[in-house]
UniProtKB/TrEMBL annotation, chain B:
This is Indolepyruvate oxidoreductase subunit IorA. Heterodimer of the IorA and IorB subunits. SUPFAM superfamilies: Thiamin diphosphate-binding fold (THDP-binding), TK C-terminal domain-like. PANTHER family: 2-HYDROXYACYL-COA LYASE, INDOLEPYRUVATE FERREDOXIN OXIDOREDUCTASE ALPHA SUBUNIT. Gene3D superfamilies: 3.30.70.20, 3.40.50.970. It comes from Candidatus Aquicultor secundus. Keywords: 4Fe-4S, Electron transport, Iron, Iron-sulfur, Metal-binding, Oxidoreductase, Pyruvate, Transport. Catalyzes the ferredoxin-dependent oxidative decarboxylation of arylpyruvates. It catalyses: indole-3-pyruvate + 2 oxidized [2Fe-2S]-[ferredoxin] + CoA = (indol-3-yl)acetyl-CoA + 2 reduced [2Fe-2S]-[ferredoxin] + CO2 + H(+). GO terms for molecular function: 4 iron, 4 sulfur cluster binding; indolepyruvate ferredoxin oxidoreductase activity; magnesium ion binding; thiamine pyrophosphate binding. CDD domains: TPP_IOR_alpha (cd02008), TPP_PYR_PFOR_IOR-alpha_like (cd07034).
């Protein structure tokens, strides 16, 4: 696949319009859940697969337990780093309330993977607001094909609860047309050396979960 | 080789390639990672300055000596550095000098949404705007060339979505080497009125020459599509326009001051309708209208907040048959997720006490500003870096009230808290200034500063002695207190606010993200009577469940602040409780 960036097309007199082949992946959750690391691995995999890639993330206040979203877009030519509403082919939610908050971003027929972990925001901790009940049903009620995964427990099986982000990444990876080895290589490059084995195991657990025939997209 | 880089990483790489030898700045989202990336290059002297004004002044010195110098800051930082900037426009440079102004449309982490493109116009200096990371690398190089050819500082203006988005960049480029020479030239560099008057004309002539250059500049280019609508755009807005209207004609401007009049005129004449798409102010639009050309922009495109392809499509929906699909809204209201002070944050106990004592708190810029939110609600003002002390002095003098305290962090105090403290003493104020000294610049990701003594390059020098600085201003009463000890915190604040003279309390304890104390998690026992005293600390580890408090041992830091507010002794060390015994 051809890659190019806008800045190198200074001499482009006439742009021929083509139907965009760009795909969108939205990763949402709470600061501290390893979303940026997961998005880094994902983006690196997409770069290795020769796609043009853009990734947008918001730092700053989100470092203090705020809502975090990372947008990854890939295809033969990507312009905007942002995903528009109802345009994400995949949503990877690391936390239930954030899953619900961002569910409008899924494209009809898209894939929605949600970690069942709940992290209560300040208004709920203070008893001033209620954490929504039955979030999985609320999301499914919108006609969304939701895969709810207890990634924290699965990560513990792999050796560390901290690898929940990589379990979820494994779930996503099995649904994408990229070899497992490319993912392994990206994980090896990005995670701390001591945790490579745990993270690869976590990745496999997620991967095997969604590559089963029971989960057909 | 192509690699995925954020805009900030790309700027750092571009600066290395451009032969920069001096890089200075003050941390500020979304600019911080530029210097944090540049520090890895041994050939570049990279440094955090105490504030943006000093950063620019150091860079000016390096430039006059013949080096290429880069200065980085967030948009409001340029307000602080504006004083040297406007006169630097007169002196010009020797080695190239580029100022990165990282604006924050949408105010993801800023106190205002100012559009710093106006600074280029006001200071009469050229400005470039990248659209993505590859642009950033190319434009940094262009910026240094323009700076040296036209003898001018150059602003590279970015926005959050450029700084923090990653895209592919070609990185195999060799570093430029530059000979450094300095020749004494007071007519050019000593801005006494007589010299400044002659430089004033140089500035105007330079602007004319730059306008000519803008016509030929390869970064300003037309991408022809259908001629029904022609978009004039720059920065990340270019990407949104290409996404929303892939078939339209686009004039992409990367040099947005001064603007290329002929290029723009020709473009407008060749399309049926020209629309400027720009975030924030109608900066480009106004200039085009001054030339008497027919163009629209803010009539459709919002002037507040960030843009995105959906907003642009929606704004122009009447023009194109491309109505927005409205997605189904949720029928339940979701609780928000505001950022919070971390478990064990040393600021928490002080903010809690300020709230309890019902004091007027003039606040400042830093993590502690989160103390404005419930349940702490311990902040009355937040204007800009260092404003807390002057605000407190003014409030007190206007009202005669003693129950006013200024609250600011250690890095903020060094940035711009010292001069207002001098004012408080000199002008016979009686304010109590609280310095929350957590030994770092926490909010922007834990950068060192003069108070820690450690430099960006890792040199461990003598830390600035805050107590001595405070005493040197004439303050008689300086206390240094551990903010974890609530009783002492409360006594100190009560004692100092009662005085008829200005005083300073330094609450000193390192940010937990810098230095983790060897403490154990706590838990709530059955002795809890549900009084909610601990819940009112707003600690992420404490929650309110079935009319009782709970502590999450996985995130509890063991700071013991909640232990001190519990009247029932219901908070105990997790490891010491035999949980099998059914408490």
């Amino acid at each position: 696949m051809q890659r190019s960036t806008g800045a190198q097309e200074y001499n482009g007199e006439h742009m021929i319009s083509v139907i965009s082949d760009v795909k969108n992946i939205l990763l949402v959750g709470v600061g501290g859940q390893g979303i940026v690391l997961a998005a880094d691995v994902l983006s690196q995999v997409l770069v290795s697969a020769e796609y043009d890639v853009k990734m947008s993330e918001i730092h700053g206040m989100s470092q203090r337990g705020g809502s975090v979203n990372t947008m990854v877009r890939f295809g033969s030519k990507v312009f905007s780093p942002l995903i528009d509403k109802a345009k994400a082919e995949y949503i990877l939610a690391f936390e239930q309330l954030e899953a619900l908050r961002w569910s409008d971003y899924l494209k009809p027929g898209g894939v929605f993977i949600m970690n069942t972990q709940k992290i209560e925001p300040l208004p709920v901790l203070l008893g001033k607001a209620r954490y929504p009940q039955n979030i999985d049903e609320l999301i499914r009620g919108k006609g969304i094909n939701l895969l709810a995964v207890d990634a924290d427990s699965l990560a513990e099986e792999a050796g560390s609860k901290k690898a929940a982000n990589i379990v979820l990444l494994g779930c996503l990876a099995a649904l994408m047309p990229i070899d497992r080895g490319v993912w392994y290589a990206a994980i090896e490059r990005r995670v701390p050396p001591k945790t490579v084995d745990i993270n690869k195991r976590a990745f496999d657990i997620g991967y095997d979960l969604t590559s089963k025939p029971a989960f057909i997209v | 080789m192509k690699v995925l880089l954020s805009g900030n990483e790309a700027i750092a790489h571009g600066a290395y390639v451009a032969g920069v030898t001096m890089a200075t700045g003050y941390p500020g989202t979304p600019s911080t990672e530029i210097l944090e990336t540049i520090v890895k290059y041994d050939e570049i002297e990279a440094a955090w300055a105490p504030n943006e004004k000093v950063a620019l002044e150091v860079a000016i010195g390096a430039s006059l000596a013949g080096s290429r110098a880069l200065v980085t800051m967030k948009h409001v930082g340029l307000n602080v550095a504006a004083d040297p900037l406007f006169t630097l426009a007169y002196t010009g440079v020797n080695g190239g000098l580029v100022i990165v102004s990282a604006d924050d449309p949408g105010m993801h982490s800023s106190q205002n949404e100012q559009d710093n493109r106006n600074y280029a116009k006001a200071a009469k200096i050229p400005m470039l705007e990248p659209s993505d990371s590859q642009d950033a690398v190319l434009l940094i190089d262009e910026a240094f060339n323009i700076s040296e050819i036209f003898d001018t500082p150059v602003i590279l203006r970015t926005t959050t979505r450029v700084n923090h988005s990653k895209s592919l960049v070609e990185v195999d480029v060799e570093r430029v080497r530059k000979e450094e020479t300095y020749e004494k030239n007071p007519q050019k560099y000593v801005m006494i009125p007589a010299h400044a008057k002659s430089r004033r004309e140089v500035v105007e002539n330079r602007l004319n020459a730059l306008s000519e250059f803008a016509e030929q500049f390869r970064g300003n280019r037309v991408e022809w599509g259908n001629r029904h609508i022609g978009f004039i755009t720059s920065g990340v807005s270019y990407q949104y326009v290409k996404e929303a209207f892939p078939d339209a004609s686009v004039l992409k401007l990367t040099m947005t001051y001064p603007l290329p009049r002929k290029l723009i005129t020709d473009f407008i004449e060749q399309v049926e309708q020209a629309i400027v798409v720009e975030e924030l102010d109608p900066f480009i639009e106004e200039q085009i209208k001054i030339w008497g050309l027919s163009v629209s922009g803010k009539r459709f495109i919002p002037a507040i907040g960030e843009l995105n392809p959906d907003i642009i499509r929606g704004s122009l929906a009447d023009k194109e048959d491309d109505a927005l699909e409205e997605s189904e809204a949720l029928d339940i209201e979701l609780p928000g997720r505001p950022p919070m002070l971390c478990p064990g944050c040393p600021h928490r106990g002080v903010l809690y006490t300020l709230n309890k004592l019902k004091l007027v708190v003039t606040g400042d810029i830093g993590c502690y500003t989160l103390g404005v939110l419930p349940p702490l609600e311990a902040m009355d003002t937040c204007i800009c870096m260092g404003a807390s002390i002057g605000n407190a002095t003014g409030f007190q003098k206007a009202t005669g009230r003693k129950d006013v305290v200024a609250v600011l962090g250690d890095s903020t105090f060094v940035h711009s808290g010292i001069t207002p403290l001098i004012d408080a003493v000199y002008n016979r104020g009686f304010t109590t200034v609280i310095i929350l000294d957590n030994r770092t610049t926490a909010m922007t990701g834990r950068q060192d500063h003069p108070g820690t003594g450690k430099t960006l390059k890792g040199y461990d020098g003598p830390p600035l002695d805050l107590e001595m600085i405070v005493r040197a201003t004439g303050i008689q009463s300086v206390k240094v207190i551990d903010p974890y000890d609530l009783k002492v915190v409360k006594e100190a604040i009560k004692e100092e606010t009662a005085k008829d003279e200005p005083s300073v309390i330094i609450f000193r304890r390192a940010c937990l993200l810098v230095e983790r104390p060897n403490t154990k998690p706590f838990m709530v026992t059955g002795a809890c009577n549900g009084c909610k005293a601990c819940v009112k600390l707003g600690c992420p580890a404490i929650s309110w469940k079935e009319k009782r408090a709970q502590i999450d041992p996985e995130i509890c830091s063991g700071c013991e602040v909640c232990v001190q507010v519990c009247k029932k002794d219901a908070v105990v060390e997790y490891a010491k409780v035999d949980r099998g015994a059914g408490i």
